[in-house]
Automatic annotation (TrEMBL):
It comes from Mesobacillus boroniphilus JCM 21738. InterPro entries: Na/H_Antiport_NhaC-like_C, NhaC_Na-H+_Antiporter. This is Tyrosine transporter. It is a multi-pass membrane protein. The lineage of its organism: Bacteria, Bacillati, Bacillota, Bacilli, Bacillales. Its main location: membrane.
Length: 196
């Protein structure tokens, strides 16, 4: 944008703060080109930024008050079998995504809660990392009120429910993770049973 102001002599440097805040409005006369170039600015990002701040605030509040750890602690007391542990970890990450709408909190809260159980079960922590990615991060675009869901919907102009049937990776990752957990395929163990 600054480069275009140097190239196009009609623009005044005094307009730069307004353009940075409200976005650039192209007046080329070509409707399609103007539609493509007229956008941006801080103002266009306020909704997404405020959603991130609110989601992180709510998640931090629920975590600090002990609500989420208490819910997960009640669940984590029954995790003696590996398939139950992996299923509970994946479902917790998905549930936190739907509850809070923030993928980072689903990773942090679930990871901190279940790390000790993975060590106790003799599973390498890279299994936990994979589950958090497959069921925490990848699910977030499918949640309409999540940060990713709102961002993708606003950028593409398509509602979340309209693109869900085509989000094969997002839909299949948790399924494959659960299948690996229940069959034991690709699970790395620690100690004597370690798999390279």
């Amino acid at each position: 944008m600054i480069i275009s102001m140097m190239v196009v002599p009609q623009k005044d440097w005094g307009q730069l703060p307004g353009i940075l805040y409200s976005g650039y409005v192209s007046e080329s006369g070509n409707e399609q080109l103007d539609s493509l170039l007229s956008r941006g600015g801080l103002e266009s990002m306020f909704f997404s930024v405020s959603l991130v701040l609110l989601a992180l605030s709510m998640g931090g509040l629920l975590f600090k008050l002990g609500v989420l750890p208490a819910l997960l602690r009640g669940l984590s007391n029954n995790l003696e079998k590996v398939p139950v542990l992996i299923g509970s970890t994946a479902l917790s990450a998905i549930g936190i995504n739907f509850l809070i709408g923030e993928q980072y909190l689903s990773i942090l809260i679930t990871g901190n809660t279940f790390a000790g159980h993975f060590e106790k079960a003799g599973l390498h922590l890279k299994n936990l990392s994979r589950i958090l990615e497959d069921a925490g991060t990848v699910i977030n675009p499918l949640v309409p009120w999540s940060v990713c869901g709102v961002f993708i919907s606003s950028v593409l102009g398509v509602s979340t429910m309209d693109y869900v049937p085509f989000a094969f990776f997002c839909l299949l990752s948790p399924v494959l993770t659960l299948a690996a957990g229940f069959t034991g395929i690709t699970l790395s163990k620690t100690g004597k049973n370690a798999v390279a």
